[in-house]
């Protein structure tokens, strides 16, 4: 029997899952954005998500997961890092939200002008064993090392963190992250 985890754990379609400026984004809107992007992503099993907008980054990560693509998450976006990603996964394309993106990979522009959802979409269940991402070390001591992350491992890790922080009590919480991904990937609790 394959175990699955829901893409979102918010209780209803009107639950707020993110904020864009001063505007709340509901679960319904987030799911519509994820499904719309997933339907448009080009061929290729690997995605380098270079979206600078954090909401678009999250939508891109979930859209890739939804359609079975693996996100490549390096600690930097230098030309050398991009070259190494292309060597690691020759079919990789760059998902970006910058009209002036010059990443030396096939590029797919995330045009976020999607219509409002007409009806709430069901929250998809994702197999726990689905490969979600390769998270790369910085490579400061040599070649960056890829660490495979499955959806199940990410969900279990997020749930354990919520438990440790006292956020698993059934109330609605807002968590604000302020560290760049390169710092977060190397951070370890003391």
From TrEMBL:
It comes from the Bacteria. InterPro entries: ANL_N_sf (IPR042099). This is AMP-dependent synthetase/ligase domain-containing protein.
């Amino acid at each position: 029997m394959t175990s699955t985890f829901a893409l979102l754990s918010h209780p209803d379609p009107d639950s707020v899952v993110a904020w864009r400026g001063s505007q709340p984004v509901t679960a319904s809107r987030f799911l519509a954005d994820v499904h719309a992007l997933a339907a448009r992503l080009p061929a290729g099993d690997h995605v380098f998500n270079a979206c600078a907008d954090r909401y678009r980054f999250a939508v891109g990560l979930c859209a890739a997961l939804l359609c079975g693509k693996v996100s490549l998450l390096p600690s930097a976006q230098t030309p050398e890092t991009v070259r190494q990603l292309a060597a690691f996964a020759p079919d990789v394309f760059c998902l970006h939200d910058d009209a002036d993106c010059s990443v030396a990979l096939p590029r797919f522009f995330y045009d976020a002008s999607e219509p409002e959802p007409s009806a709430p979409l069901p929250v998809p269940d994702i197999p726990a064993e689905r490969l979600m991402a390769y998270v790369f070390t910085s490579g400061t001591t040599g070649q960056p090392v890829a660490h495979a992350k499955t959806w199940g491992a990410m969900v279990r890790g997020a749930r354990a963190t919520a438990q440790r922080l006292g956020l698993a009590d059934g109330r609605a919480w807002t968590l604000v992250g302020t560290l760049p991904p390169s710092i977060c990937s190397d951070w370890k609790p003391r």
